[in-house]
Amino acid sequence: MRVVVATGNAGKVREIGAALSGLGWALEGLGGLPLPEETGATYEENAALKACAASLTTRLPALADDSGLEVEALGGQPGVYSARFGGRSSDLERSLYLLEQLRRAPTRRAKFVSVIVLAYPDGHVESYRGELPGTLLEGPRGEHGFGYDPLFVPDGETRTLAEMTLEEKQAISHRGRALAALREAHRNGPPPREVKRAE
Fold first, then answer.
1. The pLDDT of residue 191
2. 66 is catalytic
């Protein structure tokens, strides 16, 4: 089955392709096609906006993801606004802004959330969710990863995501868990029309 990955990032296409290997899918990028703005209030809505638009344009099944960091002390913020938290434009600025908000917080518990949506030209949509709980440090550690990775220590780990190799991160990440749920659902062909969760 040919599947379009609704992203302009060739690296993400390769990463998703590796995670879904064994399904026999031929994954391809958008090839320069535009994506709609992420105006949804949830990860599911944002991922569906992109996947449905790509599927309608290409007339092929299309896969898209949306993800974010939810901080307990901030009532779940920044969530879907993680990439533009506080109006900051760079990873470092957003991380410093987040640390400022947590300076007197009673807890530093947080979780990364990812939702993968697979949309078909006939309008059928599947959604898969993955979560990675952990704790935020008081300062960054590590040279790998991106976004809030240098601040985030997953439960059961002593290293931040930015101190792990890409392979180590992918094995436990929120996106990796969502993709694993999708892969399992399609292992024996298309699944029933229901939402699959990876906790």
1. 58
2. yes
